[in-house]
Write a structure and sequence with these properties.
It is built from one helix and 15 strands. By secondary structure, the chain is mainly beta. The strands form two sheets. A ten-stranded antiparallel beta barrel has the order 1-4-5-9-10-11-12-13-14-15.
């Protein structure tokens, strides 16, 4: 896939940023590693490619999307009391299969009805974030900031020897936010994410859950994450909603 050729470069660049951040943070004893994984379930995934001439179809209604395993990794570096920068790697890959009930024109090819068809939805996300914490005390942390996101997206259909795909790599600015309410030294409620809406489209990636501290440097997290958004233009019409059932660990150094 065309977009995948660029992914190793992006991964290596982001890995270099993570290593640099971790090294600097270790010297200051102010870094945080957040690993999250679990099940990703498609709520809807509607497409029309090209956006002005293709056939509108759904990877969840016309085909059946599988429940996927997901993982994501974030590294935070605290720069003083109020400022935090972070890097995130968040791959996502969902497979679908079934048969269309009508001809589907997609990315220059036509897929016949009644023929077994497989679909693939890839939405890998790489982000750099700066956040300023307006409130930070024993009970609350409240912060807002900016995120620069690179999306590495692919949608593909295959059926009876016919294959077509749409790949897209692009940058998106987002607003970052975090609200954490601590109840004593062990338990916190957490709401955090990135989101933005504009005439060109929208994007929301939000986590709500609980953090349970298991020691001075280790916490466990459990909660729900929603990923939603898309764009509507002459090139693409694509809107997707993914539900995440998430669990993970947070390590502080």
């Amino acid at each position: 896939m065309t977009t995948m050729r660029n992914r190793p470069i992006a991964v290596l660049a982001l890995a270099a940023v993570l290593v640099a951040m971790a090294s600097a943070a270790q010297a200051q004893d102010r870094w945080r590693v957040d690993f999250e994984n679990g099940a990703a379930v498609s709520g809807y995934n509607n497409l029309r490619i090209p956006g002005d001439k293709g056939t509108k179809f759904s990877l969840t209604r016309d085909l059946a999307s599988d429940t996927a395993y997901f993982w994501r990794l974030r590294v935070d570096l605290r720069l003083g009391r109020k400022h935090v920068v972070s890097a995130l790697v968040a791959p996502l890959r969902i497979n679908a299969s079934g048969e269309f009930r009508q001809p589907v024109a997609f990315a220059g090819a036509t897929f016949a009805p009644g023929v077994p068809t497989t679909g693939l939805y890839v939405f890998n996300s790489y982000r750099l974030t700066w956040r300023y914490e307006l409130v930070r005390n024993n009970d609350w942390t409240v912060g807002v900031g900016l995120t620069a996101k690179i999306r590495d997206a692919v949608t593909r259909l295959e059926s009876a020897g016919t294959t077509a795909e749409k790949a897209n790599v692009g940058g998106v600015p987002l607003v970052n936010f975090k609200v954490e309410r601590r109840f004593g030294p062990r338990v916190s409620l957490l709401l955090e994410g990135d989101a933005l809406a504009a005439p060109q489209g929208r994007a929301e990636d939000v986590f709500a859950g609980i953090l349970v501290r298991a020691g001075n440097s280790l916490s466990f997290k459990l909660g729900y994450r929603i990923l939603e958004g898309g764009a509507d233009n002459d090139e693409v019409y694509t809107f997707a909603l993914v539900h995440y059932l998430s669990a993970g660990v947070v390590i502080r150094f």
